[in-house]
Amino acid sequence: MSKILIVMSAADAWERTDGSLYPTGYWAEELAAPHEKFVAAGFQVDFASPGGVLQPLDQHSADPAIAGPNCAHHVRHAEKALREFGPLLKLDEVDVDDYVAVVLPGGHGPVVDLHQDPDLGRLLTAANSSDKLIGAVCHGPAALLSAIDSDGRWVFAGREMTAFTDEEEQLFGTADGAPWLLATRLREMGAKHSGGPAYLQYTVTDGNLFTGQNPASSGAMADAMIASLTR
């Protein structure tokens, strides 16, 4: 059975420019929707994070007023999947050769730790060099920033992608006081970032790279990856 690796952040708080801490965690739909689709398609899914730390649930993703009417299902599925998997793999012990794809869900955590995690950078660089599929959704594309080659260049510079937009960050109320904004940083680093209407499904595929703009794009991103892996 082919395996897919979901890499989670280990962060539970996002430090703001004023020094305050904003609670964060994994976004239920961004973890649950791809996991559910991958398993239904016959893939085994493993979870890993820096140090094997299990990140808490972002409580915003359990609020129907924010995350939509299906959020309770996503929360139940994510919690069940993580509970049944058991202790997360430690990112520095993962062998990327064991997997056909690497997936990076969001929540704000990736802008705290994964964007500069050297173990993830090495893993993503190796995955990209082997043309393995790489998926990232919402704030997950921040994790792509960790992939810097031996010459100091960003591995994904020049690639087409999407991510949580600056407009969405403003609408969510977290742009003011953010140390940096994801979509802007990706463009500054050389990504060809594009976005669709706020909070509506929008995905971009560029070769082996699959990205989704926001939680609503999680399932569509996974569908595109599955289609590529099973064709």
TrEMBL record:
<keyword id="KW-0346">Stress response</keyword>
<keyword id="KW-0315">Glutamine amidotransferase</keyword>
<dbReference type="Pfam" id="PF01965">
    <property type="entry name" value="DJ-1_PfpI"/>
</dbReference>
<keyword id="KW-0456">Lyase</keyword>
<dbReference type="GO" id="GO:0019243">
    <property type="term" value="P:methylglyoxal catabolic process to D-lactate via S-lactoyl-glutathione"/>
</dbReference>
<protein>
    <submittedName>
        <fullName>Type 1 glutamine amidotransferase domain-containing protein</fullName>
    </submittedName>
</protein>
<dbReference type="GO" id="GO:0005737">
    <property type="term" value="C:cytoplasm"/>
</dbReference>
<comment type="similarity">
    <text>Belongs to the peptidase C56 family. HSP31-like subfamily.</text>
</comment>
<dbReference type="GO" id="GO:0019172">
    <property type="term" value="F:glyoxalase III activity"/>
</dbReference>
<feature type="domain" description="DJ-1/PfpI">
    <location>
        <begin position="29"/>
        <end position="226"/>
    </location>
</feature>
<dbReference type="InterPro" id="IPR050325">
    <property type="entry name" value="Prot/Nucl_acid_deglycase"/>
</dbReference>
<dbReference type="InterPro" id="IPR002818">
    <property type="entry name" value="DJ-1/PfpI"/>
</dbReference>
<dbReference type="InterPro" id="IPR029062">
    <property type="entry name" value="Class_I_gatase-like"/>
</dbReference>
